[in-house]
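so my prof wants the structure for this chain in the tokens format not the other one, which i didnt know existed until like an hour ago. anyway here's the sequence
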Amino acid sequence: MSIEEKFSRLGTDNAPGQEVRQSAAGIEALMRGEKLEGKPVDFSHGDVDAFLPTPGSFEVFSAGYALGGKQAYTEYRGDYEIRELLAERLAAFTGAPVDARDGLIITPGTQGALFLAIACTTARGDKVAIMQPDYFANRKLVEFFEGEMIPVQLDYVDAGNNAGINLGELEDAFKAGAKLFLFSNPNNPAGVVYSVDEIAKIAELAERYGATVIVDQLYSRLLYTGATYTHLRAGNIDPENVITIMGPSKTESLSGYRLGVAFGSKKLINRMEKLQAIVSLRAAGYSQAVLRTWFAEPEGWMDERIRLHQAIRDDLLTVLRGCEGVFARTPQAGSYLFPRLPKLDVSYADFIKILRLQAGVSVTPGTEFSPHCADSIRFNFSQDHQAAVAAVERLVTLVERYRA
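here's what i got, hopefully its the right format
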């Protein structure tokens, strides 16, 4: 693969916040009717003005700044005292021990952790099993490191109480030589949670075929009523074959501090530190201090944040389901909706641009998550409640206007 081809596959036009760089050439000619007025809503990412960062986070950041060089120049894998604190909390949360010294690294965001983890497990020609649909960076990173992707389908539509992983396809991928499996739980974009049976089977297959598993658990704290969560690392799987990625950027609205953590396999964490040392040295030292607030929020704070997000989710589902031909499975966790649209008179790619220009509503195309999801869109509903509902009402209006 040439360097030009490698970077051509890393398209960023549809990434959160990048929509303004898209060309609107020819779109106005497709538009029908008047522009829909309303507060613009960018559903490509959450609104940290609607959901403020964890209480006390700025004060803890300031205290880290006041420490000066001690906080600024940590080990490449992060401040040891903070890693000890996190190891204890993450072990309690996930149900399995975390080695603060050798089994945990603090990274510049969970995106940084994902980059390091895939880079440390994928070489040219390596076969990698990935879910479809799933977080778009998984595919792009495997391609960047010249791995060979083996897709595993997630039938989230008809899965009942399961997430919908095709376990037969996963086993076939392992039989074909895949030694790495990537997935997010809860799933990004569909918000479904893998059942205890699905997680147990993933662990069993990974053990049987000697595969490493990287699981992105970014939204595992934001669980809605009735949802139960099973941590892969707490199951019957060799801890040296698992990397878990988490961080406080979403549920806790600490995205501006760019913090993530990866924990698990000591061998892989060591590799990740070596790579981080030449990529970014470390996560920003002063920002690392903010991790002291993680899993230490005021009593009731997380419950209230979940309640508010669930209320938005439910109201948006009501609006969407009032539109004939729109399908949306109820997310069990996280802040993403992934509705499927009916047939339209314009392409789905053009409709997404029309939606932004004519209604002030930005969403992420489903093709970012799977080539099979052109008729789906993802939006992050961690927004101002009233503005989000009004924006989805405008979306539905345009669906009716452009319906085939």
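also thought this was worth mentioning. Residues 3-52+300-401 form a domain with the Aspartate Aminotransferase, domain 1 fold (CATH 3.90.1150.10).
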